[in-house]
Specification:
The chain is built from 4 helices and 2 strands, in the order E-E-H-H-H-H. It has about 130 residues and is mostly helical. It is elongated. Strand 1 and strand 2 (about 15) form a beta hairpin.
Amino acid sequence: MNIALQTSQGPTTTTTPAPTNQPVPEDVGRRPQWPAWLFRFVLLAWAGFWTWFVALDGFKDGLAKSWPYMLMFLVPIVGFTALTLKWPRVGGASLFAGGVCAAGFMAQRPDWALLFAGPPAVLGAVALWMGWRR
């Protein structure tokens, strides 16, 4: 707040009041961090489970013939997860779109669509919501 003072010697001057010595808590105006950490944990648990599952399935069938199958699943899972952790809005949009597309491919089996395509779609929607809240 500026205070204008009229002096007898000349034009109006403007001064600012001295700062108060009141301590300001560090967390004023900040959002709690636990929702973001909980989201990261759930995202990494989902990606870790599918990475583990695909790797074990690929090793079971023999690495020589199953590495293209493993890459087909691992590259998007790791890529979407890294993208979501770095840029929540971009990664969330890609996760959500991937979940919706996967649900479209599994339209004949709604239970499969809910089980396999539901988690990335929900994680993507939450990432989008959290990214816009920043």
